Amino acid sequence: MKPNFDLTGKVALVTGATHGLGMAMAKALASQGAILVINGHSPAKMDTAIAQYAEVGITAQPFLFDVTDAVAVDRAMTQIETEIGSIDILVNNAGMIQRTPALEMLPGDFRKIVDIDLVSPFIVSQRVARTMVRNNSGGKIINICSMMSELGRDTLSAYAAAKGGLKMLTKNLATEWAKYNIQVNGIGPGYFATEQTAPIRVDGHPFNEFILNRTPAGKWGNPEDLGGAVVFLASSASDFVNGQILYVDGGILATIGKPGGE
Ligand SMILES: NC(=O)c1ccc[n+]([C@@H]2O[C@H](COP(=O)([O-])OP(=O)(O)OC[C@H]3O[C@@H](n4cnc5c(N)ncnc54)[C@H](O)[C@@H]3O)[C@@H](O)[C@H]2O)c1
């Protein structure tokens, strides 16, 4: 039997999908037939995003809410369920990075990153899973992790702690909710060519040289490279895959690296 990657009629919510990796993954889900619901928290960015989706023939239904606010999440989920349908696929993509040396990190800033990158995927997953359980529908939850779920790097204490925690939250929810036919997996993107990284993706920039040297593939990822992974984990092709983190990183985590130029 052919593996089934079709998402026709499935309601997919992608948080933080007004641009960047979230938008690329949302487009991939829509390309397989998913009914797309996108979240953001900036009205201006949302208007631009809707137009960008429309340019490629995708109708994205916008819901503005702060993923860290459990009351706002509950209200939005109820509205989505009433107006569009129960969510079959949730991609917890909204996130934030802060680069501060650990010796200078303020506790409040540390908490803010953990709140957005770890607590909010829990809040949204719990709300979505409660409906999946009530409806006995099963479902797919995909947490966007990071190579920092496995590795440390200077200035990323809060981000690495949160993304490492998100990896373990993924495994724990997979364990608890497997009996409801809910699969919870993660995707760990490597270094991607997004608007944010444009200023450092230039010849001669030390970070650009570091990435090209450190990545066995010898290049930055394109956001579209995440499409196959998200569709796989959202589809019934992955029904027996649970609690896994799929790293889409050009091979970075497979290697200890190499001295420059060799
Ligand atoms: N860009 C990369 O190379 C890379 C690598 C590894 C992991 N990631 C992860 O992938 C995800 C997307 O990354 P990106 O580079 O596209 O990031 P980005 O900063 O461009 O986008 C993040 C999105 O999350 C939204 N967001 C942040 N806080 C929110 C909140 N409280 N409520 C609702 N929305 C909120 C932002 O508005 C934005 O749309 C993040 O979780 C990030 O940690 C990115």
Give a list of the ligands. Answer: nicotinamide-adenine-dinucleotide
Task: Please give the largest β-sheet.
Answer: 7 strands, parallel
Gyration radius, rounded: 18 Å
User: What characteristic shape results from the CA principal axes?
Assistant: globular
Q: Which structural class fits the helix and strand makeup? A: alpha/beta
Give the CATH level 1 class.
Alpha Beta
Strand order of the largest sheet: 3-2-1-4-5-6-7
Tell me the CATH architecture.
Answer: 3-Layer(aba) Sandwich
pLDDT < 50 stretches: none
Discrete helix count:
7
Number of domains: 1
Task: Classify the fold: give the CATH topology.
Answer: Rossmann fold
Instruction: Name the CATH homologous superfamily.
Output: NAD(P)-binding Rossmann-like Domain
- Percent strand equals 5-15%
* Mean residue pLDDT: 96
Order of helices and strands: EHEHEHEHEHEHHE
* Fraction in helix: 40-55%
The end-to-end span amounts to 45 Å
Count every beta strand, where a strand is a DSSP E run of 2 or more residues: 7
